[in-house]
Amino acid sequence: MDVWIINGIPGAGKSTTTRALAQQYSRGVHIEGDRLQECIVSGAVWPGEHPLEEERRQIHLNVRHQCLLAKSFAQKGFTPVLDYVVVDRARVQEYRQQLPGLVLRLVTLAPGVQVALARDQHRPEKTVAARWTHLDAHIRGALHNMGLWVDNASLTVAETVAYIWSHREKARV
Asked: Is pTM beyond 0.90 here?
């Protein structure tokens, strides 16, 4: 059973692509890490906020719950597609450890900073990309040659999903 992680900086197209990829399966589910973070109604410390120790603790808690949901859905025949920012190989290893027996596939959407910023301006629900553009270079360096990388700057959502689907073996980590 596959578990997908769709990665990239804010504005890269993670949520839209994740939902469209999950729809390719007869039983697919979209698990959005940001929505899990929003479940914390008191005491939430979002990525990039202080105190850093609590920020890290909540990121690990978020990943843990993504994986718990993914395992639960997978056990009932659904293919989970996770949507979150994965910044380094240690985080990929964290997913691997928490998803034993499942095939982990990582896709990093990399449209470039300018495209992500432009897309972000058209999202009324959250305009946050400018705060996170520094992660583009970090992710490119830390996850270079890991999983499937997709420059979706000029691709439609359907074209992006078709590319991912046709290169799914390269996404396996």
From this structure: yes
